[in-house]
Structures are given as structure tokens and as C-alpha cells.
Design goal:
homodimer, alpha/beta, TIM Barrel, 2 domains, 8-stranded parallel sheet, 3-stranded antiparallel sheet, 14 helices, about 40% helix, globular
Amino acid sequence: MRFTLVHTAHDCAARAGVLELTHGVAPTPVFMPVGTQASVKSLDSMDLAALDAAIILCNTFHLFLRPGPETIAALGGIHAFMQWPRPVLTDSGGFQIFSLAALSKVSEKGVAFQSPLDGSRHLFTPENVIDIQRAIGADIIMCLDECTEYPADFNRAAASMAMTERWARRCKARWEDNNPHDQALFGIVQGGAHETLRRESAAGLAALDFPGYAVGGVSVGESREEMAAATRWATDSLPTTKPRYLMGVGTPEDMLTGIEHGIDMFDCVMPTRNARHGNLFTSTGRLNIKNARFARDDTPLDATCGCPVCRVYSRAYLSHLFRAGELTALRLNTLHNLFFMIQLAVQAREAICNNRYVAFKRAFLQAYNQPDETNEC
Amino acid sequence: MRFTLVHTAHDCAARAGVLELTHGVAPTPVFMPVGTQASVKSLDSMDLAALDAAIILCNTFHLFLRPGPETIAALGGIHAFMQWPRPVLTDSGGFQIFSLAALSKVSEKGVAFQSPLDGSRHLFTPENVIDIQRAIGADIIMCLDECTEYPADFNRAAASMAMTERWARRCKARWEDNNPHDQALFGIVQGGAHETLRRESAAGLAALDFPGYAVGGVSVGESREEMAAATRWATDSLPTTKPRYLMGVGTPEDMLTGIEHGIDMFDCVMPTRNARHGNLFTSTGRLNIKNARFARDDTPLDATCGCPVCRVYSRAYLSHLFRAGELTALRLNTLHNLFFMIQLAVQAREAICNNRYVAFKRAFLQAYNQPDETNEC
């Protein structure tokens, strides 16, 4: 993996870069669609190519349970399995264990949990999550971390962060030992809402010299201001030459704030989940396609959007499909929302390169948050 | 509308034709995917174009209830609404009233029913189903008929058939009175499982000189042999120069039998419904993609298939998506099954033109019904 900084904004910490990975190149900032079970819900790999997604994320926890890393490896790895030729990132599974598995139990050794599918018992350790992610074969893999809950007091957050750092050392040792697919391993900054801990975590991981870094333990219930602060403390203390990934973020607004604080990579299920609920992004704000006022509206969802849906279908048709419970509605809505997020990152990059990122962000938010009838979600 | 017979088989009643409609040309025999609510379930119009569907069917009953014919007309008709530029056929809604509506009541006047969506009361008459279909704007529209239940004794089937013929006269008068979109109206042969009645119905409608004819009241519980007989009695008594449509049929086997007996057009929800249950057609029989033996099978669903799914994805991936409950599985399975049916009609046409239809049908069924492990559905 090679990361090249192309430009750093003059008016904030935003950066434009190029991430060269085994399966292709991703200009940054970049939004990564989430393909939890080796599929971005309702889309196939040809759809993702049509959206020009540069890199997608898959979830190790889900793929470990089904179809299993051995099956994916036997089929040639995640790229061949999905027929997705471009880069993939896998998380370590830690976050999903805490949110989805029954009876999860953390110890220095790792995280024990029961499968929500069949109740079977498993243990994820810093070492075996590297082995599992090696079998899956993504371009970027993540260290096992403990996603510190919110709120967590200083002592709790400090102990959790320290264990995440010890786990990061063990992950790195395992990865250095055997990395046949030239995968890039990212360390994950924790530390909760505590500046000292965030800075200490970032500095500690930086000393381990990972190919890249993630900011974890965000989007777990804290305020927007706290998320921005946690991001800033981390990016402040991370090397400028390495890519930075803000895990599980987020909304258009949160992505633009993350970029402003020096983040390069984002992922979130929100755009796809909202799409399946009829909640769609446009340049003038969010709308709910169920709304009766769209029943005879023959204009596209967003007149400024060049996505495969806005180029073809009307709000009236999309509204009908959604109200009629048609599966097609879920896919078309998903295509639109993902294109919106992917393009927002592309536009942000262009603004950074032209030294007008802060003005770009302000103009976007002004149009997006205008108090007119279109902001109904 | 213009229908040209290109070739009639030497060894059976099969025909190859060309159906020229307002929105395009459909070579026959042809399979029409069913887009009940102005959407073939899980697909969009670009998908249908990728499958090279020549004509699709939409259901008047569903579109009448939601979004309503006035809305579709206000948006420029069904083609503009769906952004489907090719031909569309709408049924008259009669069949759906009998199967889906609450408290339907047939009289000479028409069919009264309650909406399953909101309980509102409506009356479909031979006249207003023409008006409704005119507003929707399909290329081919259907007369209101009473789909005679199975079994029905001679007297019941005779009375029902006679009313369908009286309704056909009223439909034709309304259509002749006002046909601004150059829509083609088809009459529907009824008569149950009774040869005399089927022949009488066909002859009676033939005397009315419709642009085309459908065989209705099939696929309602009768045996495969009874369906073939009802088809043969009808096509025997219909003019050879007009297109013939076997309503709601069917399986690959039933379509090939219909073609053998001189049918030109088919529609059925079975290929799409089966797809959503993981039940897939291949040249060597049906398979259930859930089956564990596909978990590491990196071959396509059908090595002889050129569909957008078989060209890209493995059985292993499709099996994983289906078992994981991914929405993408429903769409990919649907694409494959529809391509199979559309192509089967295309191959049948080629065989007819080459005077080898009976041999083609026999060879297809031999491979499709072979008693090996792949026929598991």
C-alpha cells in the first residue's frame, strides 16, 4: 500500500490524497459503501462499479459466521467471491461482537461470544482476527480493538484504550509474521471523550508505525461536538503521511466535519439503511419519498444529481414503488444515496485541491439545511 | 398493430411471427415478464432492457388501485411512468378481482369488488376497463372476462362463456369509439374444460374480428393435459392471422406445449416468484440455490446461459447471498429466471423457423427432466 498526500488545505486540516492498494487506487477523501455480508444491501458488484465506488467495506464478524473465511479463501478470496475487482477493507469484527453477539465477554486474551445464527461459541483474539482477515483477503485489514462504550469515565476509558494498544501490538506481530497478500493493517485509536487518552492512544499507535490509522469509538451516542473533538485530538497526534479512517461515520454533515479535521476515509450504513426507509439525500436536504406531494412529481429526486436513478426515473415513480412495497424501490433508493455520499467526497476533494474547502462545506450545509419544506426527515 | 406470420412449423401448429406495436416490435413466440405494479419485482426498466425483454405485462387491477389511472395518465402513460420504452400489455383486471379482492360480485353489468388496500368499493364494467386501460396507455389491452372456475360443469361454463362474449362486444364497442393511442384490443376465449364451449367461444370472438385473442381460464387447477386440450380447441378455431396469447402460463414445459399448439404470447409470475424462493431454472433442470452442495461451487448457475448473472457470479456466491437473506439474491435470481424464459421463447422461434420444433422441444425436455441430482425442486 502506498499513500500519497496530494494537497493539504490552507484553511483547515483537510487533505486530498491517493491510496494505492493491491486491487486499485482510491483518491481520498473517500466514502466506502458497506457490504456487510459480501453484498451492499440490494446492490450487486456491477451496481457498485456503476456508482464508481473506489473501495468498499465488508464485515469480518458476519463473513466469519457465514460463509466462513475458509470458504471465501477456497473461492479465491473476497474479490473473486463477490466479483468485485476493486479494493476492499474488512473491519476486525470487534464492533459487531459488542453490538450483535450474545454473551460477549472481553478479557486480555480477546473477545468470547456466541453466534447469533446458531449459538455456537467463538473467541476472537488479536491474532486470529488477522488470520481470518488474511483468509478473506481484503486490501486493508483492521486490528482488533475494544470499542469503548459512551459515556466512559477516565479510568475506564484509559484501561480500555491501553488494552486496545496491547492488542494492536499483538495484531501487528501476527501480520508482520505472515502477509502473503500484501494487506495493509490499520491501528485503531480509542480513548473515549477524553483528550489526554485520545492523544495518548494516537501517539502510542503512531510509534508502532502502522500503514494507516482509524479513529474508533465514535458514533456511539456522543454529541456531534464530542465526535469532532475526538477526531481532532486523534488526527492532531497521528503522522500526516498515513491515511486516517473515521469508523462508522456518517451523515453528510459528519463526513464533511471529519474531512475538515484531516480524515481521509469514511464508512457508514446510514445512507443505505435510510434509503431502504425511503429517506433520501438531495443537495437541498433530505426528503421522504413516501410523501404524498411526490405522487405526480415528474422531476428527478435531485436535479443536480447524475446518478443512474436521477438520470432515468421521476420522484412520482420512485414514490409509487416505495408506497407499493416494491423491492425495486429499495435498490433505486440505495443507488441514489450511495452516489450522493461517494460524490460528496469527490466534490470535497476537488474543493480541497482548490483551497476552498471551508467555503465549499459552508455552501453545502447552507443548501442542505435550508429551512424549507424539503427538509422533512 | 400489425401481426405477420413468418413461418408455421411443418410438424405441429407452432408459429413464428412478428408483432409490430406502437412502442416497438416483438418477435413471437414471446415470454412477457410480469410487472404487476409497474415494476417487475426486484428489477427496474434498465434491467429489463439488459434481458432484452420485448414486451412486458402490467396488471390493471393493481394500477387502478395504486397509483390510479389518472396519475399514470398525468405522468404521460405507463411507458413514461416506468421509463420503459418498449411495448406493454395490460390485462383487464378481472382475474385479479376473483383472486385478490374481497366480496367480488359478478352480474351482467360487470364485477363489483372491494379494494384489498382500503376497503373502498368499485365496479369494473366492460366499458370502464377499456377507459382505465386507455388511461394507463399500454400497447395491448384486454377485454373484461369472467375467468371460469375449475371445475365447472357444462351449463355453468356455458353461461359464463356467453357472458364473457357479451362483455367482449361491449368492450369492443367502447374501444372502437375512442382509441387515441392506437391500442390493440384482445378478446379472451373461455369455456372451461369443454371442447364444444372452447370452440364456440373462439368462433364467437373470431366473428367479432379482434386484433388478437387470448386463451383464458387456464392454469386454474386443471391438469397439464386439460390445459393443452383447451389450448388446442381454442387455437384450432381462431384465425391463423391473429396473435394468440395464453394467459398466466407458465412453466418452461407448459410454454413449449403452448407453442406447439399455436400460441404466440405467454406471461407468468412463476419464474419471478420461484426466483425469490431460490428455485432456479437451468438447461439441466431446476435447482434450489439454498442447497449446501453449492457452498463452494465456483461454476455459474448454468454454463450454457449468457444472462448477466451467469456471466459474472458463481453458484457459491448466489447460494451465500440467498442463505444470508440478502436482497441482492432476489434480484440476481430474478434476472436469471427471466432470461431463461425469454431465451427459451427465442430458441423455440429459431427451431420453428428451421422446421425442427418438435425435436427441439423433445431435446429440451429430455435435458430439463433428466433424473439426476440437479432436479431437486
